[in-house]
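Structure tokens please, single chain.
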Amino acid sequence: MSSKGGGLPPLDDTVYDIGVTFCGNIGHAVFILVKHHKLFIVASFLSMKDQKIFLLFGAIYGFCTVAFGAFAAHGLQGVLSTRALAVFHTGVDYQAIHALALLLVGLLARHRISHALRFAGWAFLSGVLIFSGSLYLLTLLDLTWFGAMTPIGGVMLLLGWGALIRHIFQYE
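Here you go.
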């Protein structure tokens, strides 16, 4: 594309400065690309404020926790082995805990948002999806390679807790 008309410049051997800016009042993150002192907006996300996203996903994860728990108790008993059912329940348990953690992050974000709190929210959101999601797929589809993804989700959850701790100490 030509750099005229606001489109993206063609990517060549030119050195680009890439940045990300967070517009606090509107809750957007904008990726910018700069070439020869010309500014190009590459992508924008977070059309809702972070707090609403975290509250929404906390509620969705909470809703799904109840549904998945009931499904496991009434629909999977006798279908899955005892071990597979225990693995499924582990996913439900971690999802429940981190649904509450996302709600906490969303409520804290109403008072004071920080990079650490924003990171915690996104780490919890993605960590649940990867950790619990991989356990659900592992047990329901019997695809053992999904088990390799579970630790990645676990690390995301740990990073989320660490970032939440940092946020708390940042604002004593």
